[in-house]
């Protein structure tokens, strides 16, 4: 009976953390249509807006760096409660900021709450995976993609009809309601001797000494550089170098993200059947092939199809690498997850600006070809993600 109750609790926890992934994606997606409003409402230049967005990234990275320490002391459930409930108000605080200095503070806080929430929810998903002895990370990220799509797709229409403040208020109310219900059903890490993977311990902040976690973080970085490149530059590549009109150019990231979202809901089943390392290797090769064809494509439609293929591959690479980071031997789930997420998200936050600088002196085609080489490196390193494989230490869930 205890085993049955334990598994039922874990299943509820699985859907609770999925709901928080959905809410996090919804908040992030809802921010995108607010960006042009910030530009006009505060009467600022694009350069100043870029600095505000950079502060969002700085807040996210700062929180990600410290979140692992907080999780190791208090557990992912408690930390996720704090960041989740606070983070639900982040967009509203930005929407209320009346001037640039307050907007800067609001952006840093918003980014920090979303970043800390990200580490904590991924760490909690690893705890659920360990309890169920099966993968749930890919579908959790699928829920994040669904939330992002909903937030972005509905936001523009809501702002146009009701104003940016009404939109931010409704987004906050919905996110808070989902998170407030979900946190009641989150599961906590097992209490085990200090130093074991996934346990809560009262240690001082310190960077982990195991080099393997940094190599897993490097794989996440290389993967998310490619994801960020498609997000920020694929449309411009099609428009400037393949002579596509704006409507067609916009399909590049749409195809990439749509295929990625769908594949994430199939990813757990694939990973459970074939194993994390094999899935990562095949995914990296598929993504590399897609990126290579995109960089060499002579026509917009071939490039769009290639970016979709790249999304097919990348979809489950990041979830597997996050699971590997959260299961490192000799460190807590939060510590490993903090390293891997911080390194990984740096690829989206920092690399796109470097790519833009290179593109000014070159062209996007060779850059996408070079990025396919980075994905081949992930393929060669895939064996280092073996900690994402599951050992039969708990009864499998039905």
UniProtKB/TrEMBL annotation:
Membrane topology listed for this record: Multi-pass membrane protein
Swiss-Prot/TrEMBL keywords: Membrane, Transmembrane, Transmembrane helix
Main location (coarse class): membrane
Domain of life: Bacteria
InterPro entries assigned to the protein according to its UniProt record, in alphabetical order: MFS, MFS_dom, MFS_trans_sf, MFS_Transporter
Positions of the Major facilitator superfamily (MFS) profile domain: 212-398
Subcellular location: Membrane
Ranges annotated as spanning the membrane: 15-35, 47-67, 79-97, 103-121, 142-159, 165-187, 212-234, 246-266, 278-297, 303-324, 336-358, 364-385
Annotated coiled-coil segments of the chain: none
Entry protein name: Fucose permease
Classification of source organism: Bacteria, Pseudomonadati, Pseudomonadota, Alphaproteobacteria, Hyphomicrobiales
């Amino acid at each position: 009976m205890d085993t049955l109750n334990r598994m039922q609790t874990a299943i509820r926890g699985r859907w609770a953390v999925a709901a928080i992934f959905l809410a996090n994606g919804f908040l992030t997606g809802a921010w995108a249509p607010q960006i042009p409003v910030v530009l006009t409402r505060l009467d600022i230049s694009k350069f100043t807006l870029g600095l505000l967005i950079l502060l969002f990234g700085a807040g996210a990275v700062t929180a990600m760096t410290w979140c692992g320490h907080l999780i190791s002391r208090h557990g992912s459930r408690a930390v996720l409660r704090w960041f989740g409930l606070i983070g639900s108000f982040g967009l509203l605080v930005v929407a209320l900021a009346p001037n640039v200095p307050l907007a800067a503070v609001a952006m840093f806080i918003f980014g920090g709450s979303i970043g800390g929430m990200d580490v904590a929810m991924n760490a909690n998903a690893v705890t659920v995976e360990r309890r169920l002895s099966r993968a749930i990370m890919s579908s959790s990220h699928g829920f994040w993609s669904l939330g992002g799509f909903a937030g972005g797709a509905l936001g523009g229409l809501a702002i146009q009809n009701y104003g940016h403040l009404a939109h931010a208020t409704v987004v906050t109310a919905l996110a808070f309601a989902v998170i407030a219900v979900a946190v009641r059903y989150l599961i906590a890490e097992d209490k085990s001797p200090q130093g074991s993977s996934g346990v809560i311990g009262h240690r001082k902040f310190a960077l982990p000494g195991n080099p393997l976690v940094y190599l897993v973080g490097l794989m996440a970085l290389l993967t998310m550089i490619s994801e960020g490149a498609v997000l920020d530059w694929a449309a411009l590549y099609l428009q400037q170098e393949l002579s596509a009109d704006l409507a067609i150019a916009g399909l590049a990231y749409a195809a990439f993200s749509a295929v990625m979202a769908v594949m994430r809901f199939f990813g757990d089943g694939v990973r459970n059947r074939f194993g994390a390392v094999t899935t990562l290797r095949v995914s990296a090769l598929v993504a590399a092939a897609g990126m290579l064809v995109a960089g060499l494509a002579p026509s917009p439609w071939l490039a769009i199809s290639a970016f979709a293929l790249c999304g097919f591959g990348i979809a489950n690479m990041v979830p597997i690498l996050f699971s590997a980071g959260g299961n490192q031997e000799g460190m807590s789930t939060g510590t490993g997850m903090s390293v891997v997420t911080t390194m990984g998200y740096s690829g989206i936050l920092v690399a796109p600006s470097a790519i833009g600088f290179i593109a000014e002196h070159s062209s996007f085609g060779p850059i996408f070809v070079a990025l396919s080489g980075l994905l081949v490196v992930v393929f060669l390193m895939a064996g280092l993600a073996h900690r994402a494989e599951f050992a039969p230490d708990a009864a499998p869930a039905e």
